[in-house]
Design a protein that fits this description.
Chain lengths: ~220, ~130
Amino acid sequence: MPITVEHVTHFLTVAAELIHAYRDELTSLDAAIGDADHGANLDRGFAAVIARLPTVADKDIGTVLKTTGMTIVSTVGGASGPLYGTAFVRAGMALADRHEMSAEDVVLALEAALDGIVARGKAQPGEKTMVDALVPAIEALRAALADGRSLTRAVQAAAAAAAAGAQATIPMLAMKGRASYLGERSIGHQDPGATSTAYLLRALAMTCSRNEEEA
Amino acid sequence: MIGLLIVSHSARLAEGVQEFVGQIGGDQIPVVAAGGASDGSLGTSVERILAGLEQLRAADGILALVDLGSAVMSVETALEHFSGPPVQISNAPLVEGAYLAAVEASNAEATLDQVAAAALQARELMKVYE
């Protein structure tokens, strides 16, 4: 079954719900090694995205994702605004004018999102950033699809890899962003950006699972 | 004429740097403050930065001076939506960099490269002598 605009907007709705539910956790992770605004910022950004979704409901997938990115850029004042904003805009550019997408297109969109985050933040794996959740997620997704697993199973594997990736940031020394100013004191804390990335992947897995049940 | 864009997480800090730098050039050097998030809270705003760049559109070049964290990424994101004079983002500390940039920019013939180089000298500025 191909993925349609309805599935994409469903994913964004679930993502907004998850971010809202974990808002305080994300903010307290950020309080430990950043500026204590990650949960509140993302919650505001995704709430604005949900408010904008009806205006693009009849558009293509690329337009929905690009609108999501631009809304995040204009409403999120922390580093996650330019980072997630660029990620969604790039994913939208990769799926421009498309009304349907395949499992391979999910990989393509996530790779474009990762390229956007790396281009904007210049982070490499191991530097205690959202890259440390997204890179293992894409690897797990690709490996599962290559093994012939369904998209739902593959995205579940990606979400699990992202969560493990976020947890693996705990012993890392922060090399980018506000946490890097803390030096050694950043060690021992889970990165808030990697954590929110893991929630977005979980939202994707929840969306796929629900669609599979309904199918 | 080179314009200076002051980008800080704090709107008041950006305005303070603008005021401080204004002491050098008076109203000769175009200096625009683009601080704070869209709602005025602590943070940076791509929209505010873009509006600041637009205000400096008449300049021959724009040097953006930033504090830290998301400031650089927000300026870079804004630049993807700006097609005006060339813009450079300075690696200089905000206050000292803006000050030295303004000194250089007070020469109306100074190029963007020259103003950017002057700002970077702030990294080696001595304040306390042995």
